Amino acid sequence: MKKFGIFLEFETSENNLINRIKSSVLIKILGQNDYFLEKPHLTIYTFTTNFPTTVISDIFKKLFNKLNIKKISYLRFKIFKNDLLTGKDTLVLLIKKEIKLLKLQKKIYNNFNNYFYFDNKNTNILSKIMLLNYKKFCFSYYGRIWLPHITIGSFNYNKNKNKILDLLDIDIPKNFKVSSITLNLISKLKTKKISTCK
């Protein structure tokens, strides 16, 4: 069984900005942390499958031969409390949930749903609506409960909130330029890019 993620990735200037924010937070905070070393991206969909990587990659290439989303709109910083994957609090750049992003999610579901594998491992930690989404779409954050975001890092917010208050003063552009949509193979150790559409 394999896990895949379909991400939006950004132009160099946006990557540099996000990485500067990641670095400025990381050097200030105390305690264990996660996600800070990940390459900046916005997750559109993740799913598990038993099909070979070549099959999934071929579908992706046929589906995305041209990138139609050129920019996304930034809203504000947000903390996701008690991240299910890390057990900590995750700081993100919240992105406006525009129709074009919801259509992109739906397009992925419509073209990949016959290849999904429902893995019930650890589903007991999901809320009722997340579990329903996962059973139907193989992605807990599909549709109306999805909050598109770019992750900065995960840490104990209560211990560190006074150290990152100056983030509110950072001048962040209202729009982020998108460079590509990518198919990625996700494992516990690393994320490997399989295919890219620009």
Please describe what this structure looks like.
With 198 residues, the chain is α+β, with helices and mostly antiparallel strands. It has one domain: Cyclic Phosphodiesterase, Chain: A (Alpha-Beta Complex). It contains 5 helices and 7 strands. Strands 1, 2, 3, 4, 5, 6 and 7 form a 7-stranded antiparallel beta sheet that branches. Strand 3 and strand 4 (89-95) form a beta hairpin. It is globular and about 45 Å long. 23% of the residues are buried. The mean pLDDT is 94.
- Please, what is the CATH homologous superfamily? Cyclic phosphodiesterase
The amount of helix comes to 25-40%
How large is the count of helical segments? Answer: 5
Mean of residue pLDDT values: 94
Q: Tell me what the CATH architecture is.
A: Alpha-Beta Complex
Beta content comes to 25-35%
Reading off the top of the CATH hierarchy, the class is best stated as Alpha Beta
According to CATH, what is the topology?
Answer: Cyclic Phosphodiesterase, Chain: A
Rounded to the nearest angstrom, the radius of gyration is 17 Å
| Cα-to-Cα separation, first versus last residue | 28 Å
Structural class estimated from helices and strands? alpha+beta
Q: What number of structural domains do the residues give?
A: 1
Low-confidence stretches: none
Succession of helices and strands:
EHEHEEHHEHEE
Shape, per Cα inertia axes = globular
Say what oligomer this is. single chain
**How would you sum up the major sheet?**
7 strands, antiparallel
How many β strands by DSSP?
Answer: 7
